[in-house]
Amino acid sequence: MIGIRLTLTVTIIAYIFAITIGLLTGLGQLSSNIIIRNAALLYVQVIRGVPIIVQIFYTAFVIVPAAIVAINLLGDRLAAAGWMSTDNIFTALSIRDITFIARGIIALAISYGAFSAEIFRAGIQSISTGQIEAAQALGLTRFQSLKLIILPQAIRRVLPPLGNDFIAMLKESSLVSVLGVNEITHLGKKYAAASFRFPETYNTLAFLYLSMTLILSMGVKFMERKLKTD
What we know:
Blueprint: H1 2-29, H2 34-48, H3 52-80, H4 89-92, H5 100-125, H6 129-137, H7 142-172, H8 184-195, H9 198-229
């Protein structure tokens, strides 16, 4: 049960960050600012072109340590300028303070943020231009049109594919086991290695993942039917 709880916790937290990144990146891809638009497009293309297992290793052992160094450097500069004390959190932060669970969550969020971005972009672009033009004719600003007209409809349309993304992330959360995170895959591997009961262990592991994904799939299908009838 501990492994299942950790697997679900990692997936839920990572997914919340992923859809936040995805929404902002999806909006960025449609931005009129060429720098923001190209930066968003570059992020999506790079992430979608790199295997997720590589992203997990790169995030855990390159991005996070580099971020810690940058944060410490910023803290040192702020302390030297007298804006912060010398023992503030920015200068005291250590790479050991970032657990491998947190690094796995960050990696999954970055990875699925790119896929969510494409879903949000497609959802926003599916709204007819006539509605946007009508909003402009009524004097609404771009932000007001987005908030009041476009996003409410787009989010409703993207809920089913976002649900499918959540199911995919649940399955791929097993990859954080390479970092030693004690989710069900890692616990299963340790038990199988200690007991030599490989068939029983991996049959159970497959059954647990299948059960969780089937339940979630039924939830997504129910949501799709509900959205169609409303």
